[in-house]
Amino acid sequence: MIAPHADALVEHVRANRARYLDELRAWIAIPSISAQPAHAGDVRRSAEHAVARMRAAGLTDAEVLETGGHPVAYGAWLGAPGAPTILIYGHHDVQPDDPIALWTSPPFDAQVRDGKLYGRGAVDDKGQCLMHLAAIEAHLRVNGKLPLNVKVVIEGEEEVSSAHFESFLAREKERLACDCVVVSDTAVFAEDVPSLTTSLRGLVGWEITVHGPATDLHSGYYGGIVKNPLEALAQMLAALKDAHGRVVVPGFYDGVRELSPAERAEIAALPFDPAKEAAALGVPELSGESVRLPLERMWMRPTLEINGMYGGYQGDGSKTIIPSYAKAKLTSRLVPHQDPHAVRHAVTTFLKRVAPKGVTVEIEEHGDVRAVETSRDHPAVAAAARAMELGFGKPPVFIGTGGTIGPVSSFDRILHLPQVLIGVGLPDDAIHAPNERFDLGQFYGGIETMTYLYDELAKALR
């Protein structure tokens, strides 16, 4: 049953769409690039801007909280004693804007074209944070209260791996106590296909250095008697997978769950055309484990990817050398029930075992982000599904995502909380790329969805 005040809430947010758009453009204008020290002041200014918007929405407890790195914007409304408490998470930092030349309009002067708002941070994640602040404001202005208690955490380091967020969570555990976390930093499956994400992959990585001779050598004098580190590295990396795209590292797939026939049928029924996807990506065809569905490979199977290889001469023309070293960076996206430490150890052990003679190998491990999975049968997820159906006019499908949001894993591991992943971005929003954009239909539909969400969660979590 829809709450009796729902029509008034929707009427309010629709009447204020132009204001919300102006507010989002003003927030985008702050270049909160967390990766670049020159923008540290802008990241702080963005946090202060978020706190001011929280206060304008009616959150009675709003302040900038320090983390040891870039700050967190925090706000709360706790005026519903006895009702459930939700924690809304998002981030206000953004990716670097380069290459500037590829932007059609300035990245921090957001412009509307063809029903989309173009600007860095428009959808990742300032626009999706603003959806919640607008919905909170609507409840407080129309009803004078919220149906449940709300805490909002908008982080400033998500784009740089949330380096200080876990220590922040541990320190602020009491302040952040709640019944459920709501995250709006994800996308739907496609336009006009409302979706709820129920799984996120984890992440670990390696940096490999293969050492050869003490210095670069003349390839004519020494070729044939000194092992080339680039060749050795290529041999090691090629040994990681078989011809069918399956990782051959012993223990790599430990814990990986096979999908049920019903789950595979559900994935197969989604509107996904591998040939069209390949064409859109500019590749001849999709690759990976050939016996798996493409969406299964993207969401529910672990990956092992080479992110970069370098060594030797990179300049114009020729320089005939045997380089003294070669390097590579690898990452693995993990799925639920994989142990990050076990995967890191397994890959490190395998690479050292297959290293050819004549070189020495140094491997640095990093990352400890577990995959997270929330059951679609959880009452909070069911509540989110009802809210999304009300906001977008059709029931959502349940999807996974191949990406990683470190704080989601942190909430799971440190606070042991169920999480609702209810983002409304589109797959082609160009996040992290030039011309990032937020479809305004998704933005406004997202605001309406969040107004319904708080009522639905209040009923589901009692």
From TrEMBL:
SUPFAM superfamilies: Bacterial exopeptidase dimerisation domain, Zn-dependent exopeptidases
Any one GO molecular-function label of the UniProt entry: metal ion binding
UniProt cross-references to InterPro entries, sorted A to Z: Bact_exopeptidase_dim_dom (IPR036264), Cyt/Met_Dipeptidase (IPR051458), Peptidase_M20 (IPR002933), Peptidase_M20_dimer (IPR011650)
Pfam family, one: M20_dimer
Record bears the keyword Translocase: no
Gene Ontology BP terms: proteolysis
UniProt keyword terms in alphabetical order: Hydrolase, Metal-binding, Protease
UniProt domain Peptidase M20 dimerisation: residue ranges: 199-358
Annotated PANTHER family: BETA-ALA-HIS DIPEPTIDASE, SUCCINYL-DIAMINOPIMELATE DESUCCINYLASE
Protein name: Peptidase M20 dimerisation domain-containing protein
Species annotation: Vulcanimicrobium alpinum
